[in-house]
Amino acid sequence: MRVLVVGGTADGRKLATELHRLGFDVIYSIAGIVRKATVPCLSISGGFTQFGGLARYLTDNKITHVIDATHPFAQTMSNTIATVTKALSVTAIRFHRKAWLKTAQDNWIEVDDWPSLIEQVAQHDSLFITAGQVSQQVINALSTQSKQVLLRTAMPAKIILPANVTWLKAIGPFHLEDEKQLLATYHIDAVISKNSGGDATYAKIEAAASANIPVYQFKRPDLQALTYQFDDAANCIALLQSSLTLSESADTPNTRVIEQKMKFDYIHDPSLIENESFRQIRTLTDLEHLSIEAQQVVMRVVHSVGIPAVATQVKFSENACESGIVALKKGAPILCDVEMVKQGITKRMIKTDPYCFLNAQGVPERAKETGETRTMAALTAWLPYLEGSVVVIGNAPTALFRLLEMIDQGAPKPALIIGMPVGFVGAAESKQALWDLHQTLGIECITLLGREGGSAVSSASCNALLRCIKGELY
Fold first, then answer.
1. CATH 3.40.50.10230 region(s) of the chain?
2. Could you tell me which CATH class the domain 285-470 is placed in?
3. What CATH fold (topology level) applies to the domain 3-97+225-269?
4. Which end of the chain is more exposed for a tag (fewer CB within 10 A), N or C?
5. Degrees, nearest 5: CA angle 217-220-224
6. CATH 3.40.50.720 domain extents, the chain
């Protein structure tokens, strides 16, 4: 195995250093524009044109794995890596740090390109551009419509600066107090940034939020997809280690026979599978309008059904997540309509087992006598536990209908109802009733409108809130 790390970020440099320490045969590549490579392994700088192109370099140097650790906005290089490695059947891994997530304190205006940004920032007097190098056309337009512009880059600006443009040379990491002082000194009223992610340059985002200054944030570019895409070094290393183990085990006769018959390229490490699943879900859904807690619930729902489109069908009452989390922290009872929902709740995260009275003594008999479903009959046993509880209904629409009737008739109110029954008869109607009546009944709820739902979806939603309490976020 020989690994090429195509760098350009501190994350890439650190990854190459760690791979070298672990004994991998690794080469680190950097454009060499801002910094020279300071890694213990073999390094090259200046790009691949000098070697006849990336494809020629991979072939001549017998590279088996390429890690794209470039800047998230290095679209051309990332797409080149994807195209070339696919053509040569070389394993490619994308390692890009997580994008920054908008918080309640942030005032972000997301933009796709410079023309739309220039139009939107015309109202501002003092701009702080911290989005890398800009073209002459861009700086001329911005300086014309603003009183002053502060441009900060890691390398000298490659343009002629208008009289009202001040250039600062600086390389991160930056510190919050320094960034606050910078904004105040130059009377900045708008920040122009790229959503680069990472800690090194995040201070400007925090500083802008604390001063209530809007940030015009460039969205990350669309990149050609790779089979392996991670946002932390540990997953990259784990994948390489597993690949190395398989490669070494291929020396045994039995394994060699198996590999000749059948060979699949797939992820088998559970943590890698989970991380990649949620990375794809974030890419395929629009969650930024939701709170962090609500995002976790929606991602778990999508993960359970495998359909990104259902993200728009998940509905939250105003204080649903907050009310549920507070109740779960206190050890409130968790009431489940069926055993499958109960078994789906992650036991390591709760103090007492959830309750399900579907098979409790007398429930089957009562259901038979009254001609109703057992889930309806079981709700009588919920009464002593309902006040401040977390209700999780994932199977029976009749249980959800009956619970709404009980609350309307004066039964104690749960802290949260997770109502996600599945099916063709009554499922969509019961969830719509929950959503339509939750304000009238004074209850907090999370529901998945439509026919979709089920035990796995509802228990996963409860687990998402439990994971928020534990700080296990994606």
1. 285-470
2. alpha beta
3. Rossmann fold (3.40.50)
4. N
5. 170
6. 3-97+225-269, 108-218
Query: What beta strand segments (E) does 190-277 contain?
Result: 190-194, 215-218, 228-230
The position carrying tokens 């998940």 is 314
Of the candidates 388, 389, 458, the residue with the CA atom closest to the CA atom of residue 423: 458
In the sheet that holds 26-30, the strands lie side by side as 42-45, 26-30, 3-6, 65-68, 91-95, 228-230
CATH topology of domain 108-218: Rossmann fold (3.40.50)
Q: What is the DSSP letter of 306?
A: T
Single-letter amino acid code for the residue at 318 = E
Residues in the chain: 474
What CA–CA distance (Å, rounded) separates 95 from 228? 9
* 24, 240 contact by CB (below 8 A): yes
Q: What residues have CB less than 8 Å from 289, skipping those under 6 apart?
A: none
Q: Concatenated DSSP letters for 87-118?
A: HHT-EEEEE-PPPPPPPTT--EEEESSHHHHH
Query: CA-to-CA distance for 351 and 341, rounded, in angstroms?
Result: 17
* pLDDT digit string, tens, across residues 436-472: 999 999 999 999 999 999 999 999 999 999 999 988 8
Alpha-carbon torsion (392, 397, 399, 402), positive or negative? positive
64 residue type, one letter: T
Tell me which residues are annotated as active site: 303
pLDDT digits (tens, 9 = 90+) for 354-369: 999 998 989 999 999 9
